[in-house]
Amino acid sequence: AAGVIQSPRHLIKEKRETATLKCYPIPRHDTVYWYQQGPGQDPQFLISFYEKMQSDKGSIPDRFSAQQFSDYHSELNMSSLELGDSALYFCASSPRAGGNYGYTFGSGTRLTVV
Amino acid sequence: AQSVTQLGSHVSVSEGALVLLRCNYSSSVPPYLFWYVQYPNQGLQLLLKYTTGATLVKGINGFEAEFKKSETSFHLTKPSAHMSDAAEYFCAVSDPFSGGYNKLIFGAGTRLAVHP
Prior knowledge:
The complex is a heterodimer.
Chain A lengths: L4 E3 L2 E4 L5 E6 L6 E7 L6 E7 L2 E5 L6 E5 L5 E5 L8 E8 L3 H4 L2 E2 L3 E5 L1
Parallel strand pairs in A: 2-11
Antiparallel strand pairs in A: 1-3, 3-8, 4-5, 4-9, 5-6, 7-8, 9-10, 9-11
Chain B lengths: L2 E3 L4 E5 L4 E3 L2 E3 L5 E7 L5 E7 L5 E3 L5 E5 L4 E6 L8 E8 L10 E2 L3 E6 L1
Parallel strand pairs in B: 2-12
Antiparallel strand pairs in B: 1-4, 3-9, 5-6, 5-10, 7-8, 8-9, 10-11, 10-12
């Protein structure tokens, strides 16, 4: 079965650079969520999209932005990278009623800022 | 606001012993409840979930959890631990009344170690 695809799997960037993370949801899933998991921490919700509109916002820095495109894939854009942005970034997708049908996570993008 | 408390950041059991990972939530209404497992350097895999219906939920790899509304708990159990169960386990909740776009709120996680 198709899963949530995230690219790239690993990314190394220098401070103050920009990074773009991509997420391709499961077909017919119209809701995408982004999470950040720092070393030894639990995943923290960043932002979500439903039908290409932002549906919820969590602890996402102003330096980050995201959008969902017409094919439902989503991109997380991160600018002016800081060392503290080093983390595992997960994307999850779900049908609109995410709680009832469940969420499927991608394998994540590991971002290292040096 | 929803919150999740996992009691015990580290749990160690012997192979073949009972696994019990505790999760309590705080919510005025019963949320949807999930357990995820994360192996080193890997993504989050759904073990099981509770939305409605039977309060004892069976998941993959022999795990099960019971929703107890009176105790606001959703503890994860497995009768007999295997070495391959060593991983990080996250309890998570979502609010079914948050407008349908309900994000997951995670607990801090419990690292399960299984020793011979």
